Prior knowledge:
256 residues, 4-stranded antiparallel β-sheet, alpha+beta, 5-stranded antiparallel β-sheet, single chain, 9 strands, globular
Amino acid sequence: MASDKLPWEGFYTQAQLRRWLAAIPARFSCRSFSGPSDIAQAAALAYAASRVSFKGIHIEITRKNAESLVTPVPFFPKFSGVREYAAIYANPDVPLARLLCGIAGEALALEAVGLGLQGCWMMGNYRRGAVPPSANMAEKLMGVIVLGQPAPDAGKGPRSRRPLASFCQDDPARWPHWAYAAAEAMRAAPSAGNRQPWKLDFAGRTLRYSGAMDSIDSGIALLHLECAAHMHPRRWRTGAGGAGYNRVADVPEDAV
């Protein structure tokens, strides 16, 4: 994608990114809920959904057919108490549509954490027929995030995340603090099957992300990186390379 400025560059405010960074440590993939958002939380979520969405992407929060949304999947933890969800739609003609859906959807999930709620991405393990089609027939359903009040025992167990060194192509302990902090924030990012299919490396002033060009998982990871680097001047660029594509964040010398 040849562009001087990528869609997420400067799209979110410093205040938004700072708020979401604070929410990352408290965020977990919640599968057990005690109820949906209350009136104030629902209003705040609806407002946030409109603010986090890029052009050609939109998010609808609904309780319609929420109970019938879940499809049991063998060997995967079960969902319970699902009463509310966010449906993420995109015009497939938008460049990097899935990536942008991942960024916007994760922004909403982190906003929910700040409101005292939790959520969990659902990529393929839900009944698509239970989700209303978008009012804009050109848009397609890209993913779902179930949302709500976490059950009292939700999130009590250990979180399964790969060691930081396992997806860093060099020693992250030798990186400058801002790059190490960004890698740790990305390490907390959820992904389908908890595979975390990405790599990071650092050279000079550049922290390079390697992953699929157009995937929701990459969008989620990139938002976590962007949140962690929000206080630094930076620019992004993309290029082909290796097993996929790279997102590269360049930070000026005074931030290193």
